[in-house]
Design brief:
It is built from eight helices and 13 strands. It is an alpha/beta fold. A hairpin with a 2-residue loop joins strand 12 and strand 13.
C-alpha cells in the first residue's frame, strides 16, 4: 500500500517574483525531494507587469525525515536563486485578528458567529472601539475589550495605544468592522497589507451621511459593499472582495439599509477568510487572489 500524506500536517507556500523560466519546476522539485506532497497549486503570470504569483498547499508524509522548519529553512536557497518574495505557513495555525468597531454591530456579530462555527481560522486577540456600545458583546464572548476614544486632540495618542495593543497581543490582521474613524496616514502605512476595511459601495458611490437614503433618492439598481486593504487614500485601497445585490424602486431606505448590512457582512467575512488562508497577493494598488 502506498504511503498517504498526513492531512493534518499541511502547509502553505506563497511566492511572487519577476516572471522567468523554471520557477515552478524548481519549487515543486524542492518540495517533492523533501517528502512534500503537493495538494494544491495555483499560479498567475501578469502579462502587464511581468510579475509571477503562486500559491502552493503541500503535505509532508508522516515518516518524512525533514521537519517543517527544516523545509522552510532550506527553501532560502531556492528563494535566492529565483529572487522570490515568499512566505511559508502551517495551514492549521489560526491568524491573530484584532477587530475595531464603533456602534454598528452587524459585521462584528457576523465575524464572531463564523469564528465560533469554525468557518474562519482565526484567534480574536481583542475588540477595540471608540465607544462603549459593543462592550457587552465582547464580555459575553469573553474577548478583551479596549476603549480608545478618538478626538482631534487625542488621535495621535490613541493610535499609539492601538499599536501597543497590536504588539502586545501579537495581532497579525486588523479588521475594521464598521469602525467609523479615519486612520492617519502614518497608521495606514504601519498597517499596510494587514488591515481590512469594509465600505458601502454603490453605482454611483455615495459619500457622507445616510448613503442608503442617497441611494434611494437616486433610484439605484444595485446595493454593494467592498472589502479592501486600508491605505491613506480613504476607501480607495486594494480591493479584496465585493458583494452586490439587485434592488428596484420598491425598496425603501430602511430596506436598503437591511440589504446593505447583508452585503457588508458577506464581503467582509469573505475578505477575512481569503486573507487568513494566504490567498491574497498585494501588488501595488491591486490584488491577485486565488480562490
Amino acid at each position: 500500500m502506498n504511503e498517504q500524506p498526513d492531512n493534518t500536517n499541511q502547509f502553505i507556500l506563497t511566492v511572487s517574483c519577476k516572471t522567468g523560466p523554471n520557477i515552478v519546476a524548481g519549487i515543486t522539485s524542492y518540495l517533492s525531494e523533501r517528502g512534500g506532497y503537493i495538494y494544491e497549486l495555483s499560479q498567475f503570470d501578469d502579462k502587464v507587469s511581468g510579475q509571477f504569483f503562486m500559491r502552493t498547499v503541500f503535505n509532508t508524509f508522516s515518516e518524512s525525515s525533514l521537519s517543517f522548519e527544516e523545509i522552510r529553512t532550506g527553501f532560502v536557497d531556492v528563494a535566492d536563486k529565483f529572487d522570490l518574495e515568499w512566505t511559508m505557513h502551517e495551514a492549521n495555525r489560526p491568524t491573530k485578528v484584532l477587530i475595531m468597531v464603533s456602534r454598528f454591530d452587524h459585521c462584528l456579530v457576523d465575524l464572531l458567529y463564523r469564528y465560533r462555527k469554525g468557518e474562519l481560522n482565526i484567534e480574536i486577540t481583542a475588540i477595540v472601539s471608540n465607544h462603549y456600545d459593543l462592550q457587552p458583546i465582547a464580555e459575553r464572548e469573553e474577548i478583551r475589550f479596549d476603549y480608545l476614544p478618538v478626538t482631534k486632540e487625542t488621535k495621535t495618542e490613541k493610535e499609539s495605544d492601538l499599536l501597543n495593543i497590536i504588539d502586545q497581543t501579537g495581532t497579525e490582521l486588523v479588521v475594521l468592522a464598521r469602525y467609523m474613524q479615519v486612520l492617519s496616514d502614518n497608521l495606514c502605512e504601519q498597517l499596510r497589507g494587514r488591515a481590512i476595511n469594509i465600505h458601502h459601495s454603490f453605482l454611483p458611490g455615495f459619500k457622507g451621511g445616510k448613503p442608503y437614503h442617497q441611494a434611494f433618492e437616486r433610484g439605484v439598481k444595485l446595493i454593494g459593499a467592498t472589502a479592501h486593504y486600508v491605505t491613506g487614500d480613504l476607501d480607495e485601497g486594494p480591493i479584496i472582495e465585493q458583494s452586490v445585490q439587485p434592488v428596484n424602486h420598491a425598496y425603501y431606505p430602511e430596506e436598503l439599509v437591511a440589504i446593505g448590512r447583508d452585503t457588508e457582512t458577506m464581503a467582509l467575512a469573505r475578505a477575512v477568510k481569503l486573507h487568513t488562508e494566504n490567498r491574497v497577493f498585494l501588488y501595488g494598488n491591486k490584488t491577485v487572489i486565488f480562490k
